[in-house]
C-alpha cells in the first residue's frame, strides 16, 4: 500500500540522497582509516581482515568476505598477502575441506592491537564531525534507521556481528584493558 503512494521521483530523490551522503561519509572514513593504519604498512582491506579474524577468533574466507563486505577473491587475495607477512595463517578443517580458514598469528594479533592503540580520535574527521552531537546529547548517534536499512540488505547475521563486536563500542576484555589505559583514547 505504501509503495503505491510513492512516486518514482520520491524513490529517486531518496536514493540520490542516500548515495551522496554515504559516498561523502565513506570518502572521509577511507581517508581517516588509511592515515590511521599507514604506520603499520596495512591497507584498509588488510586491516579489516585482521579485525574480522580477531573478532571472530578465526574465520572462513567466506565469512571475511561477508562481514568485510568484499568479494571472496578480494578477501582471499588480501588474506594471502597477510599470510606472506606472517600475520595470518591458513587452515582447513578436518570436517570441512571446501572452506579455507584464517587465524591471526601472534604477530598479527600484536600488530592489530598496536593499530587500535594508535587510533587517535583527534585525527578522525568522523569523530570530530560527530562531537557536536555528542556534546549536545551526551552520546554518539544511534543510527537506528541506517542499521534497519543495512539489516534488510545484508541480513540479521551481518547485524549481529556488527552489534556484538567492537564496531558497536563493546571492547573485548583484553583490548579494553590494554587500550583504555592509554591517554590517547580518553576524552580529548
User: How many beta-strand runs?
Assistant: 3
**Rg over C-alpha atoms, rounded to the nearest angstrom:** 19 Å
Output the CATH homologous superfamily. Winged helix-like DNA-binding domain superfamily/Winged helix DNA-binding domain
Shape: globular
Q: Under the CATH scheme, which architecture would be assigned?
A: Orthogonal Bundle
CATH class: Mainly Alpha
CATH topology: Arc Repressor Mutant, subunit A
Question: Main β-sheet: number of strands, strand sense, barrel status?
Answer: 3 strands, antiparallel
Query: How many domains make up the coordinates?
Result: 1
Indicate the mean pLDDT.
87
Head-to-tail CA distance between termini: 49 Å
Determine the number of helices (DSSP H or I, runs of at least 4 residues): 10
Content of β-strand:
5-15%
Helix residue percentage? 55-70%
Q: Taking strands numbered 1, 2, ... along the chain, how are they ordered across the largest sheet?
A: 1-3-2
- Written as H for each helix and E for each strand, in order along the chain, the element string is HHHEHHEEHHHHH
Note poorly predicted spans. Answer: 166-170, 183-188
Structural class: mainly alpha
Amino acid at each position: 500500500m505504501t509503495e503505491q503512494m510513492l512516486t518514482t521521483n520520491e524513490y529517486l530523490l531518496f536514493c540520490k540522497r542516500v548515495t551522496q551522503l554515504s559516498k561523502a561519509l565513506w570518502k572521509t572514513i577511507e581517508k581517516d582509516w588509511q592515515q590511521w593504519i599507514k604506520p603499520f604498512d596495512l591497507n584498509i582491506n588488510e586491516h579489516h581482515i585482521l579485525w574480522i579474524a580477531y573478532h571472530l577468533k578465526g574465520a572462513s574466507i567466506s565469512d571475511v568476505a561477508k562481514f568485510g563486505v568484499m568479494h571472496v577473491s578480494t578477501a582471499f587475495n588480501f588474506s594471502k598477502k597477510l599470510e606472506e607477512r606472517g600475520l595470518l595463517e591458513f587452515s582447513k578443517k578436518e570436517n570441512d575441506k571446501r572452506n579455507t580458514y584464517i587465524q591471526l598469528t601472534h604477530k598479527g594479533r600484536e600488530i592489530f592491537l598496536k593499530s587500535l592503540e594508535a587510533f587517535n580520535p583527534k585525527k578522525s574527521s568522523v569523530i570530530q564531525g560527530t562531537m557536536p552531537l555528542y556534546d549536545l546529547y551526551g552520546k554518539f548517534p544511534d543510527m537506528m534507521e541506517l542499521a534497519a536499512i543495512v539489516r534488510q540488505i545484508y541480513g540479521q547475521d551481518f547485524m549481529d556481528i556488527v552489534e556484538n563486536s567492537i564496531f558497536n563500542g563493546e571492547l573485548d576484555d583484553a583490548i579494553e584493558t590494554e587500550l583504555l589505559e592509554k591517554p590517547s583514547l580518553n576524552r580529548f
